[in-house]
Amino acid sequence: MENEKLLEVKNLQKHFKVGRNKVVKAVDGVTFDIYKGETFGLVGESGSGKSTTGRTIIRLYDASGGEVKFNNEDVHGKKSKDELLKFNRNMQMIFQDPSSSLNPRMTVMDIIAEGLDVHKLVKDEKERKERVEELLEVVGLNREHASRFPHEFSGGQRQRIGIARALAVDPEFIIADEPISALDVSIQAQVVNLLKKLQKERGLTYLFIAHDLSMVKYISDRIGVMYLGNMVELADSDELYKNPLHPYTKSLLTAIPLPDPEYERARKRVSYDASLLDTSEEPEFREVSPRHWVRCTTKEFEQYKKQVKNK
Amino acid sequence: MSKLLEVKDLAISFNTYNGEVQAVRGVSFDLNKGETLAIVGESGSGKSVTTSALMGLLPKPQSIIKSGQILFEGKDLVGKSNKEMQKIRGKEISMVFQDPMSALNPTMKVGNQIMEGLIKHQNMNRNDAKKKAIELLDLVGIPNPETRMTQFPHQFSGGMRQRVVVAIALACNPKVLIADEPTTALDVTIQAQILELMKDIQKETESAIVFITHDLGVVANVADRVAVMYAGKIVEVGTVDDIFYNPKHPYTWGLLGSMPTPDSDEDELFAIPGSPPNMLNPPKGDAFAPRNKFALEIDGVMEPPMFKVSDTHYAATWLLHEDAPKIEPPASVKKRMQGIAKTGGNE
């Protein structure tokens, strides 16, 4: 399953102009691949550029540099309407805040069917209605919900509507930008279970952006850790949890409180001190052990390699 | 340990256009000196309304305290006038709010906001208050407190702002500190710092903390005792070990089961189906029964009383009745009950 690359991100950059001469480098050279059928988790603090990365991949922002290839086709750059349509159909997004990402003046039917209309996937009104009702059931809502408005639903139900909308056009790839952060704990589990089930049934590929590390670990096959616009570490999720190498990843992992009092009493937090890093040269993204990448300098690279061997 | 705060059978309703919303339906708990009580529950379970009542901050006139007492050092806070509450609020009981951006006044220098309480409650003059404010900023770990005093909230980062809010809350050495989701808006690394800060300060000042959150990880980190709220009631209360290693209420099971642990490999999380009840007309009997797959017939008829599990541990579920069938918590929850440390999570 992990041989075919679905998405290739190469040295992606997104810079925002702030004021006259200032530039914020929100994403500053990020490189990773996402394979077909996997869930790729992207974690980091606010301001690390994880959401910007997601939004740039799906063309909500134009990239300042680098390239994104989806199914071996360049995502950015000039495109004809037809090309855009095809691309938009294959890549969809689920947003963080289900109340602001649904148009309050549209019925659930119209919200979900918007993609169907744009891509002309249904012939007539009857088929449209059928498709929407089918989708509602897939995400665990009732057929009768189609005629209602978003404000009539709870947060968890709204997020389900967002998922149904993303699924409507039968995409291959879904970017989920903090899809559960705004939900209650018990509802989070429902939505995560739903996302997992859909992935199994439809062979979806996810880019899952979140800051809740334990949930990301649970849902992802591989995880990338972002810090200040760069990806500092990338590995299989088990490997990342067991052998974090980059000091920032370590600090992030030791900062998560876990639901276990005894563990919590013993937990020692490692704080991140950027001044301890080797600054003799510009760090690069290197593969320390198979499938485990860390952003480091040559010196640190040797050091990490030793560390991995001793484990 | 002396009881600092005692809440007895508190019930609070809101009048809305649609009718009466029973936000809190008979909540009782107590708080000892120097301890941390965590109140957990979903949004709408009434945890924030309970603490607003403790602070005397319920919106009037649409809210009514229908019954109950809030005894602070033996004196009832219910029915106190706003003027009387102002003497207590900020001085004896103070609060750390969830969103530091909206809790601070954007047009006022940070220093003045901290000094406000000192001047009002401690009758300090401006110079003394200023000194104390600088001390406080230093205490909560803000570098260069003198210059920071003259800055505005927007010049602070989220974590730093929350430190300022903590400093304001601590200014008058309150006996009770209420923290309403103080770290929900913050990043994990910043959250860890703020939690450590609050624990350190508690050690020094011996204040009691009521900590409201829905994050069980945070609860395990800070709490001595835990109260689990559902639909306006406390359904289970106990020490932090009781709740995490020997939970009795199916709702607590659901909360624990819905959080993945670092080494969990189950295909599905143990999610609680459905959504919380509408408190306009709370369900008959056990409010959790419609979402509870272990519900008994009696749950639909009669509300369960608090059953005693041990001296510190109580739970309101019919499953604890002697005639009830013995039901074991689901496997995934049991695994969590054994603790992550023992099942070998990340070191």
From TrEMBL, chain A:
Protein's UniProt name: ATP-binding cassette domain-containing protein
Domain ABC transporter intervals: 7-253
InterPro entries named in the record: AAA+_ATPase, ABC_transp_ATP-bind, ABC_transporter-like_ATP-bd, ABC_transporter-like_CS, Oligopep_ABC_C, P-loop_NTPase
Organism: Oceanobacillus bengalensis
Source taxon at top rank: Bacteria
Gene3D superfamilies, per the entry: P-loop containing nucleotide triphosphate hydrolases (3.40.50.300)
UniProt keyword annotation of Transport present: yes
Source species taxonomy: Bacteria, Bacillati, Bacillota, Bacilli, Bacillales
A molecular function (GO) term: ATP hydrolysis activity
Keywords: ATP-binding, Nucleotide-binding, Transport
Family: Belongs to the ABC transporter superfamily.
PANTHER family documented for this protein: D,D-DIPEPTIDE TRANSPORT ATP-BINDING PROTEIN DDPF-RELATED, TRANSPORT ATP-BINDING PROTEIN
Keyword Membrane: no
Sections of the chain in a coiled coil: none
Biological process per Gene Ontology, one example term: transmembrane transport
UniProtKB/TrEMBL annotation, chain B:
Biological process annotations from GO: peptide transport
ABC transporter domain location: 5-256
Keywords on record: ATP-binding, Cell membrane, Membrane, Nucleotide-binding, Transport
Matching Pfam families: ABC_tran, oligo_HPY
Cellular component per GO, a single term: plasma membrane
Domain of life: Bacteria
InterPro entries: AAA+_ATPase (IPR003593), ABC_Ni/Peptide_Import (IPR050388), ABC_transporter-like_ATP-bd (IPR003439), ABC_transporter-like_CS (IPR017871), Oligopep_ABC_C (IPR013563), P-loop_NTPase (IPR027417)
GO-annotated molecular function: ATP binding; ATP hydrolysis activity
Alphabetical list of CDD domains matching this protein: ABC_NikE_OppD_transporters
SMART domains: AAA (SM00382)
Lipid bilayer topology: Peripheral membrane protein
Subcellular location(s) per record: Cell membrane
Family: Belongs to the ABC transporter superfamily.
Protein name in UniProt: ABC transporter ATP-binding protein
Organism: Oceanobacillus bengalensis
